[in-house]
Design a protein that fits this description.
With about 220 residues, the protein is of the alpha/beta class. About 30% of the residues lie in helices and about 25% in strands. It has one domain: 5'-nuclease (Rossmann fold), CATH 3.40.50. The longest helix has 11 residues.
Length: about 220
């Protein structure tokens, strides 16, 4: 992974895409380890997680995961999809626009964008960000059958990393205790094993420097 120590890094995670890729490879993501990995690589300024939710999921086991990420170093962006956007249990609605808007807004404040997605619709976004001098790394997989990353996305990126190469660094230990979620109001956590994405939440951390923020 070619991230320089002084690079200001922004993570943009397409939640459903990352979940599908890791599931296809037979492991779960440990978000605590994922944050730790990229904080070691450079100056991690933001870690954004995007996902679409159905009306039922908004108050189901998905909510604890989103809340957990919010409390533990991630900025989460959710989008409520309408019933007509759900086909055979698959959500047709996406968070592409939300992710693209955030990436463009923050492009002048980062040196390196890491995009966890295989969606070819992001090719134009990568090109636009690169024109602003930002290097882009795409993380997805070609190891699965069929591959889960679009060729045009992989070729547009400055670097492509197959997520299978990161399994030992960001994969969840199967023997770990169940993930714990924060209580209502952000007080002491209680045991909970979220079903959606089936990943432990990251340790509470202030990403970047204390009080640091972007200037729009």
């Amino acid at each position: 992974m070619h991230i320089f120590p002084r690079d200001r890094v922004g993570l943009f995670i397409d939640g459903p895409s990352l979940s599908a890729a890791s599931r296809a490879l037979g492991f779960d993501i440990d978000f605590k380890r994922l944050l730790a990995l990229f904080r070691q690589q450079g100056e991690l300024r933001r870690a954004h997680f995007y996902t679409a939710l159905t009306e039922d999921e908004r108050s189901s086991s998905v909510r604890p995961l989103i809340d957990w990420l919010d409390y533990n170093g991630y900025t989460t962006v959710t989008k409520l999809v309408k019933p007509r956007e759900v086909d055979g249990g698959q959500i047709r609605g996406s968070i592409d626009i939300e992710l693209a808007v955030d990436a463009m807004r923050l492009a002048n404040c980062i040196d390196h964008m890491v995009l966890f997605s295989g969606d070819g619709d992001f090719r134009s976004l990568i090109e636009a960000v690169q024109r602003r001098g930002v290097r882009v790394t795409v993380v997805s997989t070609m190891t699965s059958q069929p591959p889960m990353v679009a060729d045009e996305l992989r070729r547009q990126a400055d670097e492509f990393i197959d997520i299978v190469q990161l399994q030992s660094k960001i994969g969840r230990d199967p023997t770990e205790r169940p993930v714990r979620e924060p209580r209502e109001g952000g007080r002491e956590p209680r045991p909970h094993t979220p079903q959606f994405l089936q990943r432990p939440a990251a340790q509470r951390a202030n990403v970047g420097h204390d009080g640091d923020d972007f200037d729009d």
